Amino acid sequence: MSRESGVIVSSQIWKRDYPGVADLTQRPDTARASLTIRRAIRGDVPAIVGLLASDGLGGHADTTDPEALPDYFDAFDWITAQASTALFVAVLGNEVVGTFQTDLAARRC
After folding, report:
1. Closest by alpha carbon to 91, among 52, 47, 36, 11?
2. pTM value?
């Protein structure tokens, strides 16, 4: 765990818990690529939707139906307009392979 970087990545845990991701490190186009965590941009929305729709564990009702894409862009715009929320993607090579969202809430005592 590294507090300096602000991002915690454990490839051993990631690969063990999500075997499909381990396959990415075996592909010639991603074997030597670095994993990059960055803020999501609008152009990432189709890839994010694809990840959510293919997530068998999350119980999401997400769909890759092109007719639904405008709703996802609206959701992205709403999320990124919130000062206390940030949406990130994990990129391996040129491929979005993960996503997460942070929400900061004020603590009232």
Report:
1. 36
2. 0.68
CB 87 within 8 A of CB 80: yes
How far is residue 7's CA from residue 58's CA, in Å, rounded to a whole number?
22
For the segment 84-105, what is each residue's pLDDT rounded down to a tens digit? 999 999 998 889 999 999 998 8
CB 91 within 8 A of CB 97: yes
CATH topology of domain 11-103: Aminopeptidase (3.40.630)
The answer to whether the beta carbons of residues 36 and 90 sit under 8 Å apart is yes
pLDDT tens digits along 20-46: 555 665 666 655 667 899 999 999 999
Cβ(85)–Cβ(12) below 8 Å: no
For the chain, the 3-state helix, strand and coil shares in percent, each to the nearest 5, are: 40, 20, 40
What are the residue boundaries of the structural domains of the chain, listed by start? Answer: 11-103
